Structure formats: C-alpha cells, structure tokens
Amino acid sequence: MVNIKPVRLRFAPSPNGYLHLGHAYSALVNKHIARILKGELVLRMENIDTTRCKTHYENAIVEDLSWLGVDFRKPFRRQSEHFSDYQKALDELEKLGLVYPAFLTRGEVKEIIAEAERKGKNWPRDPDGTPLYPTDERSLSKSKAREMIAEGVPYSWRLNMDLALRFSGNDLYWYEFHGNQTKKVIAHPELWGDVIIARKDMPTSYHLSVVVDDALQHITHVVRGNDLFQATSVHRLLQTILGYEPPLYYHHPLVLGHDGHKLSKSNKDTSLRSLREKGLTANDIFALLPKI
C-alpha cells in the first residue's frame, strides 16, 4: 500500500514589521492552494533575528491575516523557540567538515574585492548581485581558528561550497509545481558561493532554519515569492546533505510597487495596517492584488 503523506503548506513571515500587500498576496495564494489540495496551512514566525523581530509585529500579523480571512491553528512555530534544532543541524554539518569559521569583516571583504578588481579580475556575484565571499579562510588551520574564537574575534559559520557539492554528488534539482503540472528545475547552489550557515551568537541563518523547519513540520508544498526562486538551490543542497525529503515548490509572482520594485516593510503606504486605517476593507485589498 502506498503511504500518501498529508499535504501541508506554511506561510512564514518575519515579525520585523507590518505585513504589506505582497505578504497578503502570498498568504492568500497559500490558502487557495491548500484548499485545492485539501491540505493544511500552518503559520510560522521566522524570528531568528530576535533584535529586529518584535511581539507587537507578531500580534499584528496574526490580526491582519485573520482580517483577510486567513486563520491558523495555534500554537504556531516560532523559530526563536527552536534554536536547539538548528544547532543540531549545524553540528552535523561541522562533523562532516562542510562548514568553517569565517572572520573577515565587511570592510576587509570590500578591500579584498577592490584589490582583485584593480588587478583586472571580475569578482563573481551571487544571483542577488552580492559579491561572493572570499574563500581563503577555507584553509585556515583549526588551531588558528580556535585561537581567534577564544580571543573573541567575531565570526560566522560558512558552507564550503566546493566540499558540499562533492558530498551531495552535484546532481541537484527540485520540482516546481503549477496546477497539476510539475517541472524539474536544475539547482545551481555554486552560484551562491560560501553562504552563511550560522553566526557566532546565533546557531542558524535563513537558509539553515528554513530547511530544518520545513523538514520538522513535514511541509510538502512550499509556496513563496519568486524572489526566493534562486535561493532554492541552496536549500536543495542542504536538504540533500542533511537527509531531508524535499517539498514541491511554487514561486509565485511578486506584487510590485508603483516604481516596479519589490514592496518593502519600510514603505508604510502598502502596509495592511495603514490601508485598514484608511478604511479599506478586505474586499478592497483583494481588488488591489493580482487574480489568484
């Protein structure tokens, strides 16, 4: 007998500001697909940044979603309550020898890149346009790294992309779904270089925590904005290394501002809180969004 897993989706905002129209669209798309697939939609608070993420934003998110007609069963997962889960995954990566402590400051990175470019080298950039982190520290001895950590030098844990690709076997892909159709997408995590996996004072990063959470919450379908399409390559790499079964993915179009750029939480004009205060109803919000 074939064991068919229950369909499970998640909506995972960060409570570091008020939800805007883009978040509303993503939540509604998730709700729509969950209903079609007869699955469950759960809420997750991605609040690993405990400095910027605030309880009043979390409360506002729940209230705004309920106002839109997107309700969730409680309790919902807060990443800040599960750092031990991410630490276990980080320990596994460290045990496999796939991460290393990186000590370069932003200023030092800029100086290294500037020097290379003065010599005529085109420094590689990731899909978001950010210069890749220099790889010199991959060969830093463990004794020297321990010495620097003991001295209190700030550091982050970075993935040695070359070793990680060799460990995973390089044959990486995911399935993008749309309606009843699925499309195989070849993953290219190498384009991201040695991404941050965790920091000195935080045993995780977005990449690591989202992969661990999706696995532990048994998420079968990930529905999120197209701005995270390329990052899925990194997630597939980590899922493979950690032995997690990958979900299906759907990256929906973004809701853009009048300037054609992605909406930001700093733009209060598009926040649901601001629009509600101006007297707009949930139906008015639906009319402002692309048709689902």
TrEMBL record:
The keyword Zinc applies. It is an enzyme of class 6 (ligase). It comes from the Bacteria. Pfam families: tRNA-synt_1c (PF00749). This is Glutamyl-Q tRNA(Asp) synthetase. SUPFAM superfamilies: Nucleotidylyl transferase (SSF52374). GO terms for biological process: glutamyl-tRNA aminoacylation. Keywords: Aminoacyl-tRNA synthetase, ATP-binding, Ligase, Metal-binding, Nucleotide-binding, Protein biosynthesis, Zinc. The keyword Transcription does not apply. Its EC number is 6.1.1.-. PANTHER family: GLUTAMATE--TRNA LIGASE, GLUTAMYL-Q TRNA(ASP) SYNTHETASE. InterPro entries: aa-tRNA-synth_I_CS, Glu/Gln-tRNA-synth, Glu/Gln-tRNA-synth_Ib_cat-dom, GluQ/Sye, Rossmann-like_a/b/a_fold. Residues 7-279 form the Glutamyl/glutaminyl-tRNA synthetase class Ib catalytic domain. GO terms for cellular component: cytosol.
